[in-house]
Amino acid sequence: MTDRIAKLVGMTAMAPSRTSPDLSYLLDHASHVLRTRMAAALAEIGLTSRMHCVLVHALEAERTQIQLAEIGDMDKTTMVVTVDALEKAGLAERRPSSTDRRARIIAVTEEGARVARQSQEIVDRVHEEALGTLATSNREVFLRVMNQLVTGHLAKPVEAPGPVRRARQHER
Amino acid sequence: MTDRIAKLVGMTAMAPSRTSPDLSYLLDHASHVLRTRMAAALAEIGLTSRMHCVLVHALEAERTQIQLAEIGDMDKTTMVVTVDALEKAGLAERRPSSTDRRARIIAVTEEGARVARQSQEIVDRVHEEALGTLATSNREVFLRVMNQLVTGHLAKPVEAPGPVRRARQHER
DNA sequence: TATTGTTATACTCTATAACTATA
DNA sequence: TATAGTTATAGAGTATAACAATA
Predict the structure, then answer these.
(1) Is B22-151 assigned to CATH 1.10.10.10?
(2) What is d(CA B107, CA B110) in angstroms, rounded to the nearest whole number?
(3) Would B86 disulfide with which of A101, B92, B132, B142, CB 3.0-4.6 Å?
(4) Which nucleotide's C1' atom has the smallest distance to the CA of B84?
């Protein structure tokens, strides 16, 4: 017996509240299910969401790993792993920056550009499949409200008190 | 430098798509930020979302750990940890079921009932703070659409091919 | 044989720390 | 001194397996 919901996003259903709709559940559940749909659709061409994200933004301009990490809300160490995967798949390459010898430009290969076009189609299709179930006027209001929330009250996460972290044990 | 967004939910910003709004980003971001707000608010009375969830549903009826796990979309092993925390905080107790000697009923203490009322108020307040920023008519449409998605196209996660798992190494 | 709850642990994910090369 | 990228690893979170007691 698998409990994939709890596994993938740590989702916890809130109690159904009597006074206020359970916005936490609605957003968590919708977000989680859409994520599984997206992951499954992109997996068919061998991509993760992160790989797609990096590919598309690396295509738009000459960008370093750090720049791409900021765009995709990833840590630089996560970016290393993602770029490793893209290189191994032959979709992108690390090239030395001409202006900063520390930095690497992520260059998308021809194959990578082809795949990026495909993956963008997949992303759009998955989104449209969901939005397509809505009446046109409802869809417009819904998207306006989501944008309003994401740029307003739900723009910035509140800081959690970070966990303590011991120094790493390294060999002499 | 912390990257809490990526850390907590593994969120990856999709590429801004030209043909379709980035529903993944909107839902992920809104869900994530609301989750941090809820976690911070509940932490003030020493609860996690899971503890709140179990507390409220255990109050409603005599329920076993398994039943509560199903309601909250948790694994039974996660439930053990959650009930441990509630017991340690003096908010709930394990009692033997009178009809099944394998099962434990989760009984909420008086203190637990008090805390559950508080936590439900907190949950409602956090939800209302978000929904309160919306115009009344927009709010109604938004909630109807979210419900439509969660009961319709985004009702069930698609199955991911589960990872392989070796047998556990146990001492003889 | 199947199920409840438990313990132990394997696995994934992701950030922190330390480090190298360069600015 | 600070930053880009890398490696190694710590830590959180959460599921799987095995097990004991009971059905």
Answers:
(1) yes
(2) 10
(3) B92
(4) C6
